[in-house]
């Protein structure tokens, strides 16, 4: 989604894991997973936490999902004939229309942080996959210095919190979701973890 300078920067292990999970969600939501991505997902393990159980379920489904099946599912969910079952854009979830005020606000915040859209990406920047990638990049310093937690919280509260949980819940329940039902569960649980973490920061 974005281009920026990548530097060797010391990041706390917890924040590195957060960034990795945002990147993982972005990868699965940006395009149908290929064989390598499915194999990587199938090898994931989890503990007895809500997120751990969600990852176990996702791994089980990935083990029996073929790349053609994943592509058909992705297309039915997000592309379809004319449009997919879901429209994964902040503007649509928040206003009912594409390319509305939430996208303009996001572009302004992107410009302020030196985040630019990659030249080979044509979808609006408020796509859920792009927002997951942006959060990962802010955490690890892909757009300059790593963003302080307060700045991460501001961006998350403005562009992700108002709709991402709803989107992931819709993805869990979508008619065409099989592999992506588990992606939806993992995303919804992770959004709750982030919400609680940022809430503690504000106290």
From TrEMBL:
Keywords: Chaperone. InterPro entries: DMSO/NO3_reduct_chaperone (IPR020945), TorD-like_sf (IPR036411), TorD/DmsD_chaperones (IPR050289). SUPFAM superfamilies: TorD-like. Pfam families: Nitrate_red_del. It comes from the Bacteria. PANTHER family: CHAPERONE PROTEIN YCDY (PTHR34227), DIMETHYL SULFOXIDE REDUCTASE CHAPERONE-RELATED (PTHR34227:SF1). This is Molecular chaperone TorD family protein.
């Amino acid at each position: 989604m974005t281009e920026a300078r990548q530097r060797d920067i010391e990041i706390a292990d917890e924040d590195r894991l957060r960034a990795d999970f945002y990147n993982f969600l972005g990868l699965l939501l940006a395009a149908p997973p290929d064989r390598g991505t499915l194999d990587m997902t199938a090898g994931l393990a989890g503990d007895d936490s809500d997120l751990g159980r969600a990852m176990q379920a996702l791994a089980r489904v990935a083990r029996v999902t073929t790349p053609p099946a994943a592509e058909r599912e992705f297309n039915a969910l997000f592309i379809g004939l004319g449009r997919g079952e879901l429209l994964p854009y902040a503007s649509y979830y928040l206003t009912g229309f594409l390319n509305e005020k939430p996208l303009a606000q996001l572009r302004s915040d992107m410009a302020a942080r030196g985040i630019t859209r990659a030249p080979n990406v044509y979808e609006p920047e408020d796509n859920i996959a792009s927002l997951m990638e942006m959060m990962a990049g802010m955490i690890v310093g892909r757009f300059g210095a790593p963003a302080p937690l307060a700045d991460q919280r501001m961006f998350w509260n403005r562009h992700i919190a108002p709709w991402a949980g709803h989107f992931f819940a819709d993805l869990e329940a979508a008619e065409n979701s099989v592999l992506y039902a588990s992606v939806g569960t993992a995303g919804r649980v992770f959004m709750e973890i982030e919400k609680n973490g940022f809430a503690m920061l504000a106290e």
